[in-house]
Amino acid sequence: MAIIRNAAPGAAQKDDAVDRLKSTDVAKSKSVHLLEGLLGNDDRVLVPHKLKTKAPNKLHRIITQQVKKRGWLSSIRLRHAMIIGSFVAFVAIPATLASAYMIFVAADQYHSSASFSVRSIEAAGTPDILGMFSQASTGNTLSDSYILMDFVRSERMLAEVEKNFDLEKIYAARGLDYFYGMAAGMPLESKLEYWRSMIDINFDHASGIMQLQVKAFDPQQSQEIATFVIKQSEALINDLSASARDGVLRAAQDEVHRAESRLAKARTGVRQYRDASQEVNPVEGAKLAAQLIGGLEAQLVQMNADLATAKTQMSDDTPRMRVLKVRIASVEEQLASERQRLGSGNADGQSSDANGDVAGRIQKYEILETEREFAERAYTVSLGSLEKARIDASNKQRYLAVFIEPTLSQLAQYPARFLNSFLVALGLLFAWAVFVMGYYNIRDRT
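Given the sequence above, the corresponding C-alpha cells read:
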C-alpha cells in the first residue's frame, strides 16, 4: 500500500529517498506509479516535496521514493495460494499418477482385426467365385448387418464365448494392472460391459464392410477369440437366411396345399355327380334329347298331315283313321315326356326333380365343372408361385463374406499410453479451469 508523507521544505535537508531517486537510471512517470499503486504492484511511495523556487504559489512537484521491498511470500494473496494449491492437488498430482500408471503399470494389449460383410446373391448360375461376388448385392443386407453388430455385442455372444474360452483367465489382471483386467466373480452386467470394451465392431454404410477388432493380453488368444466370433456371426447369418427362405417356401407350400385340397374336393363332386346321373356330360345328353324331340316333332307333323288327308277321303270310324289317331297320341305322349326330361316348363325355372330333367342336371354339372376348372387354375398358379419362391429363395441367400481373416498382432498397440495420459491431464485441466472460473464468477456477483 502506498504511503504519502511530506518532505522537509529545505533544499539542504533532502532525505535519503530523494538521494536514492536521483541515483536511479530510469524515472517513471506519475501516471505509471499511480496505476501500479492501484494494482498493488507499486514498490514506491509518493512523497510531495517543496523545492526552492522563485514562485512559491506554483504547484509542488511530486516525486517518488523507493521503499524497501517486501518479501515474496507476503506479496502472494490467499486466493492465489488456493488456486495454486488446487491446481497441484486436482491437476498436477492426478495427471502425474495417471501417466505413471499408464507408462509403468498398464499391461500390453494385443489386437486381432478382421473385415467382412453380409452379402446376398441376386443372380443364379454364376460361373465362378469372382462372378458370384460381382453379382452380389448389399441392398437387402443392411438390416442383417445391424443385427450382426448387436449380436456381437450381446449377452448371447458373451455366453457363447464363455462356453469355449475361460474369459476370467484370459482377461485376468496382469501384475498391478487392475484397471484393464477382469475381476473374478463379476456380475453379468459388469462382465458384458467389460466384453464390449475389449471388442470393437464398425459398419461402413456406403460399402457394407464391417470391421471387427478384439483385444487381449496375449496375441494368440485375441486371434482365437476373433475367429470364434466370426464363426458365430456366420452361423447367425446362415440361420437368418434359412429362416427367411423357409418362411417364403412355407407360405408358398401352404398355398399349394390349399389349392390341392380345393381341386380334390371339386373333382370328387364331379365324380359323385356322374355316378348319380350315370352320364359323363349332361350337355351331350341334352343334345341327344333335343335331336329326339326334333325327330318326334317331325313325325307328329307328318302324321297330322296324313290324318288331315285321310279325313277328306274316309270317315273317322275307319281302321286307318283310328290307327293314325292312336299313333299321333303316342307320339304326342312321347314328345311331352321328352320335353319334360329336357326342362320343367315352369316360368321360374324350378323343377320338382332337379336330377330328372336335363336342364337341372346341366345347371348342377356346370357349377361343379366351373369349380373344378377354377381349382385347377388356382393349383397351377400356386405351383408356379412355389417354384418361383424356391428360385428366389435359392438366389437371395445371405452369407458372410470374410475377405480379411483375423490377424496375429506382433506389437502391442493398446493401451495408448501417451494419448491416455494426455487426455487425462487435459480433462483434469479443463475441469479445474471450469471450477476456478465458476468460483470467480460467483464471487464477483456476490
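The first strand starts at residue 44 and ends at 48. Try to locate this feature in the C-alpha cell string yourself.
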